[in-house]
Amino acid sequence: MLSLVMSWLAVLVIVVLIVAVAAITGFKPKGTRHVARTRMMGVARITLVVVVIIVAYLVFQARSGV
User: Fold this and answer.
1) In Å, how far are 18, 21, 59, 63 from 40, measured between CA atoms?
2) d(CA 23, CA 17)
3) Domain count, the chain
4) Taking the model in full, what pTM does it have?
5) Domain, as residue range, for 57
6) pLDDT by residue for the chain (66 residues), tens digit each?
């Protein structure tokens, strides 16, 4: 039964992936300010890359048993 229902962690991963794609592509709803090519978006993208690298490192360390 548990395998048929997505866990909260799976839902969180899906939401994070959707938000990351929206952040990288600069998607914005109509009527909002344009920030896709600003310094703030550049810093956000760099921060996103740093967080992904840190998480990938932690996953690698956990899988290697250290």
Assistant:
1) 20, 17, 29, 35
2) 10
3) 1
4) 0.55
5) 2-64
6) 455 556 777 777 888 888 888 877 777 778 877 776 788 878 888 888 898 888 888 888 887 876
